[in-house]
């Protein structure tokens, strides 16, 4: 199996937890990846600070929207979705101020 | 003891299932609207839409709400209260893409934006950074923006001469002015928040008048409205619910405040912004959200309850929509602090009287055995404040006298 | 050691949750009792010479209510006669003990006692109902039956008033709950201190402005006997949320309880909103917003092996009843429909 190439996008203030970088292209080691697995990977490799502001239990914190290729992850079984090569996963925070 | 004391709670038994047991309806195969495309968005756990239906229905919802009330005439100026976030950006985009004075199908009023600087808990650099970002952001929408300072307004005794400028650098951001507000917050967050809400409203109206705007748009979302309704209840402002949470706030005879986003939730607008490739500005937040204020407690309560019972917010909104202001046959005295009508007692014994009696009986033993019917226990006819603002009056007086 | 706020010279032993004043025991008793006297007098709750049924569950609210009413009646010469009215739902263990407490109240306060049981009124105990329908909707049955049982009891006793022990916390919680559920009809009525029953016996809430915490403290310091346990069957889910919210708000500032009651009193429902009109149940005569009252519907369901009949939206219930009416024998007592008690 090849490595899985995935584009991650953070916005709505979530980028503040990731070095203020909105776009991350990542390579995941070959295996079956679900979003649940990806979240663990993100925690260990990308999250620069305050994991509790992004993650909760095995999922994202309530108030963080997730889209896979512009489709609401609630239509894709949320954390159980199996990631495909070149998927674009967007995390939009609705928690930050205004 | 059993807590079911009134004719059973029958209808909402449908509502008692926890969402963890909730199964998404058929993991929607087709868009609810066009029944053709595959859905890419699901709202409130049950409404699935494809991208184009989602975008059109979101814009339609906005226009429909404005159209339903038919208040704004062609050419009227509207002050748009902007304070960042997804709601602010979506509102600006709705306006930008649907306004055209020359086109009969489009909205035909003139928007003007206002940003109220009130982040006295941030550092000077952070505050200027916020202002600069907003200034630049507004250029992309081609809508004029004005800036004003809340502390300035309060410090000047709510003067009409408070600075209102297009140039944000003219604002005075000396943190010392925030000291008074900080004291208030330390004493009672809930009351301080209430005071701040009232002052912001006053300032909005003052600026609208100066800019000759007949209307103000404020960006409250459905969750904000539901929270505000409960906050009003908890503060004793139940009688003001229609004004504080309805579509219109008509307390001022010259300027009407409208809440055009009250039917939306934040997920809708965040996704709308995303699909329109809009980057919302997230301002530096100031006060960390503590649980010590009624407002934060209730906001968290509503959000949590909504997660398990997705009909919560809409139900509370509907409750509010069915309430109206009491019409007093005699005069309509207005509270000088919040500009709302002062409640007129319509029962033999009011809560206000009961509270005043409690305070007195706890400190004056000589009242025992007195003629209760005759004694005037605080039903002051000449009162200048509503029930809730009388507490604010005492609060403000006691805080300022402590400072001296 | 603090001094009592009423400057009586004694040391304060408690801080009033309602006002924050520090009071000695005697001054607290006086303040607590006089507030209830104030409520009764100002709200004109009772006409002198009347008979009042006091809803007695054996719990703290009804025990304190009965005790204080008796005290105030004596002290301020209301000239009232009291009867304790208690409901036996037929829940083994729970009700047996609380009924013992009510009997104790009867003896201690020298008030006559009348016990109405679900078994007598409806033919079913709660234990039997739960066996039949399980624990999901049992609170619905109990709540509906209890309310009717109290009204029927008051009617039987031919009293002038029915006094219940609803306290400030209960009322505030009900306001919140009715907002959350969107129940405008109840929202507009729940803060009324006198609720007119269409059959003529008004229900009054003398403890409307008494804080639950103070009721507990009063009972404790006066060494009043009462019974307190949670009902063994599951409590209603939505009310639980309202209760948690109220308790959290109270922690921030106890005056919020009064604020909420004031808000409930001050709201006005649109004239155009659909509010149920009251009529009499065609089967048992009890007051209801429908042709057939909720109790009769629930009973019909129980008696015909379709216990879900009364549960759910009233529009669906109506439809279901209409379907049943098609099979009804038209009053010739040949079908299973409930006959009036």
Automatic annotation (TrEMBL), chain A:
Keywords: Cytoplasm, Isopeptide bond, tRNA processing, Ubl conjugation pathway. The keyword Glycoprotein does not apply. It is found in: Cytoplasm. GO terms for cellular component: cytosol. It comes from the Eukaryota. There is a cross-link at residue 98 (Glycyl lysine isopeptide (Gly-Lys) (interchain with K-? in acceptor proteins)). Pathway: tRNA modification; 5-methoxycarbonylmethyl-2-thiouridine-tRNA biosynthesis. The modification 1-thioglycine is found at residue 98. C-terminal thiocarboxylation occurs in 2 steps, it is first acyl-adenylated (-COAMP) via the hesA/moeB/thiF part of the MOCS3/UBA4 homolog, then thiocarboxylated (-COSH) via the rhodanese domain of the MOCS3/UBA4 homolog. Pfam families: Urm1 (PF09138). One of its GO terms (biological process) is protein urmylation. Belongs to the URM1 family. Acts as a sulfur carrier required for 2-thiolation of mcm(5)S(2)U at tRNA wobble positions of cytosolic tRNA(Lys), tRNA(Glu) and tRNA(Gln). Serves as sulfur donor in tRNA 2-thiolation reaction by being thiocarboxylated (-COSH) at its C-terminus by the MOCS3/UBA4 homolog. The sulfur is then transferred to tRNA to form 2-thiolation of mcm(5)S(2)U. Also acts as a ubiquitin-like protein (UBL) that is covalently conjugated via an isopeptide bond to lysine residues of target proteins. HAMAP family: Urm1. This is Ubiquitin-related modifier 1 homolog. It comes from Henosepilachna vigintioctopunctata.
From TrEMBL, chain B:
It holds the Pfam family CTU2. Pathway: tRNA modification; 5-methoxycarbonylmethyl-2-thiouridine-tRNA biosynthesis. It is found in: Cytoplasm. Keywords: Cytoplasm, tRNA processing. Its main location: cytoplasm. GO terms for molecular function: nucleotidyltransferase activity; sulfurtransferase activity; tRNA binding. One of its GO terms (cellular component) is cytosol. One of its GO terms (biological process) is protein urmylation. Belongs to the CTU2/NCS2 family. Plays a central role in 2-thiolation of mcm(5)S(2)U at tRNA wobble positions of tRNA(Lys), tRNA(Glu) and tRNA(Gln). May act by forming a heterodimer with NCS6/CTU1 that ligates sulfur from thiocarboxylated URM1 onto the uridine of tRNAs at wobble position. This is Cytoplasmic tRNA 2-thiolation protein 2. It comes from Henosepilachna vigintioctopunctata.
Automatic annotation (TrEMBL), chain C:
Residues 52-228 form the tRNA(Ile)-lysidine/2-thiocytidine synthase N-terminal domain. Keywords: ATP-binding, Cytoplasm, Nucleotide-binding, RNA-binding, Transferase, tRNA processing, tRNA-binding. InterPro entries: CTU1-like_ATP-bd, CTU1_C, Ncs6/Tuc1/Ctu1, Rossmann-like_a/b/a_fold, TilS/TtcA_N, tRNA_thiolation_TtcA_Ctu1, UPF0021_CS. It is found in: Cytoplasm. ATP binds at residues 55-57, 61, 87, 165, 170. It holds the Pfam family zn-ribbon_14. Residues 279-309 form the Cytoplasmic tRNA 2-thiolation protein 1 C-terminal domain. GO terms for molecular function: ATP binding; nucleotidyltransferase activity; tRNA binding. SUPFAM superfamilies: Adenine nucleotide alpha hydrolases-like. Pathway: tRNA modification; 5-methoxycarbonylmethyl-2-thiouridine-tRNA biosynthesis. GO terms for cellular component: cytosolic tRNA wobble base thiouridylase complex; mitochondrion. One of its GO terms (biological process) is tRNA wobble position uridine thiolation. Its EC number is 2.7.7.-. Belongs to the TtcA family. CTU1/NCS6/ATPBD3 subfamily. Plays a central role in 2-thiolation of mcm(5)S(2)U at tRNA wobble positions of tRNA(Lys), tRNA(Glu) and tRNA(Gln). Directly binds tRNAs and probably acts by catalyzing adenylation of tRNAs, an intermediate required for 2-thiolation. It is unclear whether it acts as a sulfurtransferase that transfers sulfur from thiocarboxylated URM1 onto the uridine of tRNAs at wobble position. PANTHER family: ATPASES OF THE PP SUPERFAMILY-RELATED (PTHR11807), CYTOPLASMIC TRNA 2-THIOLATION PROTEIN 1 (PTHR11807:SF12). This is Cytoplasmic tRNA 2-thiolation protein 1. The lineage of its organism: Eukaryota, Metazoa, Ecdysozoa, Arthropoda, Hexapoda.
């Amino acid at each position: 199996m090849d490595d899985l190439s995935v584009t991650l996008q953070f916005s709505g203030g979530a980028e503040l937890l990731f070095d203020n970088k909105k776009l991350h292209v990542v390579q995941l080691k070959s295996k079956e990846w679900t979003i649940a697995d990806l979240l663990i990977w993100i925690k260990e490799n990308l999250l620069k600070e305050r994991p509790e502001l992004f993650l909760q239990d095995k999922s994202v914190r309530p108030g963080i929207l997730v889209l896979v290729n512009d489709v609401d992850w609630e239509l894709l079984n949320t954390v159980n979705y199996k990631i495909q090569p070149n998927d674009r996963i967007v995390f939009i925070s609705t928690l930050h101020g205004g | 003891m059993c807590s079911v004391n009134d004719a059973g709670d029958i209808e909402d038994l449908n509502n008692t299932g926890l969402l963890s047991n909730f199964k998404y309806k058929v993991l929607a195969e087709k868009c609810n609207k066009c029944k053709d495309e595959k859905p890419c968005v699901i709202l409130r756990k049950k409404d699935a839409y494809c991208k184009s239906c989602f975008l059109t229905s979101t814009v339609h919802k906005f226009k429909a709400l404005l159209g339903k009330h038919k208040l704004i005439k062609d050419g009227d100026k509207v002050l748009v209260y902007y304070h960042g976030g997804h709601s602010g950006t979506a509102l600006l985009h709705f306006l930008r893409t649907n306004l055209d004075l020359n086109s009969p199908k489009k909205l035909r009023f003139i928007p003007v934006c206002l940003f109220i600087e009130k982040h006295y808990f941030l550092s000077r650099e952070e505050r200027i950074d916020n202002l600069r970002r907003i200034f630049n952001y507004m250029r992309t929408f081609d809508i004029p923006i004005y800036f004003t300072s809340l502390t300035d307004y309060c410090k000047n005794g709510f003067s009409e001469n408070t600075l209102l400028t297009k140039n944000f650098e003219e604002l005075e951001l000396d943190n010392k002015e925030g000291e008074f507000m900080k004291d208030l917050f330390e004493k009672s967050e809930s009351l301080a928040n209430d005071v701040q809400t009232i002052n912001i409203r006053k300032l909005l109206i003052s600026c609208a008048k100066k800019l000759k705007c007949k209307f103000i748009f404020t960006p409250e979302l459905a969750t904000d409205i539901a929270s505000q309704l409960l906050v009003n209840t908890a503060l004793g402002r139940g009688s003001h619910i229609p004004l504080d949470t309805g579509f219109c706030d008509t307390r001022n005879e010259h300027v009407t405040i409208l809440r055009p986003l009250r039917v939306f939730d934040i997920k809708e607008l965040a996704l709308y912004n995303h699909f329109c490739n809009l980057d919302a500005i997230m301002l530096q937040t100031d006060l960390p959200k503590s649980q010590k204020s009624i407002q934060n407690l209730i906001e968290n309560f509503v959000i949590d309850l909504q997660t398990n019972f997705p009909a919560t917010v809409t139900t509370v909104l509907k409750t509010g929509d069915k309430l109206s202001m009491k019409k007093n046959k005699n005069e309509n005295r207005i509270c000088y602090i919040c500009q709302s009508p002062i409640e007129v007692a319509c029962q033999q014994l009011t809560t206000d009287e009961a509270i005043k009696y409690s305070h007195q009986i706890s400190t004056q033993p000589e009242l025992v055995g007195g003629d209760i019917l005759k004694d005037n226990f605080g039903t002051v006819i000449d009162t200048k404040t509503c029930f809730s603002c009388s507490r604010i009056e005492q609060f403000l007086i006691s805080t300022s006298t402590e400072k001296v | 050691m603090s001094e009592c706020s009423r400057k009586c010279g004694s040391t304060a032993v408690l801080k009033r949750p309602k006002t924050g004043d520090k009071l000695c025991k005697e001054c607290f008793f006086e303040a607590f009792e006089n507030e209830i006297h104030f409520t009764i007098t100002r709200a004109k709750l009772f006409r002198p010479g009347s008979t009042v049924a006091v809803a007695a569950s054996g719990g703290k609210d009804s025990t304190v209510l009965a005790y204080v009413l008796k005290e105030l009646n004596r002290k301020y010469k209301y000239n009232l006669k009291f009867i304790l009215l208690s409901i036996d739902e037929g829940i083994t263990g729970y009700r047996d003990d609380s009924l013992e407490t009510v009997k104790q109240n009867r003896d201690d306060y020298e008030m006559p006692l009348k016990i109405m049981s679900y078994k007598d009124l409806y033919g079913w105990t709660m234990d039997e109902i739960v066996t039949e329908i399980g624990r999901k909707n049992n609170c619905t049955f109990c709540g509906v039956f209890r309310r009717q049982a109290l009204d029927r009891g008051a009617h039987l006793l031919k009293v002038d008033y029915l006094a219940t022990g609803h306290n400030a916390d209960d009322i505030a919680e009900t306001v919140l709950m009715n907002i959350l559920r969107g129940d405008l009809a109840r929202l507009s009525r729940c803060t009324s201190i006198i609720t007119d029953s269409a059959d003529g016996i008004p229900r009054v809430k003398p403890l409307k402005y008494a804080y639950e915490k103070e009721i507990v403290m009063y009972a404790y310091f006066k060494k009043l006997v009462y019974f307190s346990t949670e009902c063994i069957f599951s409590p209603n889910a939505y009310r639980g949320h309202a209760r948690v919210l109220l308790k959290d708000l109270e922690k921030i500032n106890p005056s919020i309880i009064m604020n909420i009651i004031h808000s409930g009193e001050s709201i006005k429902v649109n004239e155009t909103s659909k509010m149920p009109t009251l009529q009499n149940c065609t089967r048992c005569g009890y007051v209801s917003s429908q042709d057939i009252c909720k109790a009769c519907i629930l009973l019909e369901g129980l008696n015909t092996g379709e216990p879900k009949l009364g549960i759910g939206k009233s529009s669906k219930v109506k439809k279901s009843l209409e379907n049943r009416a098609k099979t009804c024998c038209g009053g010739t007592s040949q079908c299973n429909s409930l006959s009036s008690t």
